[in-house]
Amino acid sequence: MGAVVRNERLQQNLSGAELAKRAGVGVNTIWNIENGNASVSLKNVLSVLTALECSDQILKTIPSDSFVSPTRQRARKVDAHRVKVTVKKRS
Q1: Which DSSP letter does residue 35 get?
Q2: Which end of the chain is more exposed for a tag (fewer CB within 10 A), N or C?
Q3: What is the model's pLDDT at position 60?
Q4: What is the pTM of this model?
Q5: Best CA proximity match to 34, nearest among 9, 54, 68, 55
Q6: Nearest to 61 by CA among 6, 4, 11
Q7: Considering the domain 2-66 in this protein, what is its CATH number?
Q8: Would you say 51 and 27 are in contact if contact means Cβ atoms under 8 Å apart?
Q9: Cα–Cα distance, 72 to 58 (Å, whole number)
Q10: Residue 20: which of 41, 44, 37 has the closest Cα?
Q11: Per-residue pLDDT for the chain (91 aa), expressed as one digit of tens each?
């Protein structure tokens, strides 16, 4: 998503500082979004997307599994590695 935000910003001929001002966030926030830093709050991401007027377009680029919590992602990995064992009773 960061690359899409950067490309959209550049297409609109905006500097990072100009976009930050429009979105009401810091320049570091723009840098963090564009470089894929996961520590950016959802509120700030949405502010930037709104300032770029392309939130719908960019949100479509996010893989659906990115909305799965880290705990659930780990559980899926464990489930994938489990082997089902069946025990047959002797007659």
Answers
A1: T
A2: C
A3: 72
A4: 0.63
A5: 9
A6: 4
A7: 1.10.260.40
A8: no
A9: 25
A10: 44
A11: 788 899 999 999 999 999 999 999 999 999 999 998 888 998 999 999 999 998 777 667 666 665 556 666 666 665 555 555 556 667 6
DSSP 12-74: TT--HHHHHHHHTS-HHHHHHHHTT-TTS-HHHHHHHHHHHT-HHHHHTTS-GGGGS-HHHHH
Q: What residues have CB less than 8 Å from 12, skipping those under 6 apart?
A: 52
Tokens of 70: 């880290």
- List the chain domain ranges: 2-66
The length of the chain in residues reads 91
Q: Which two tokens stand for residue 27?
A: 């320049």
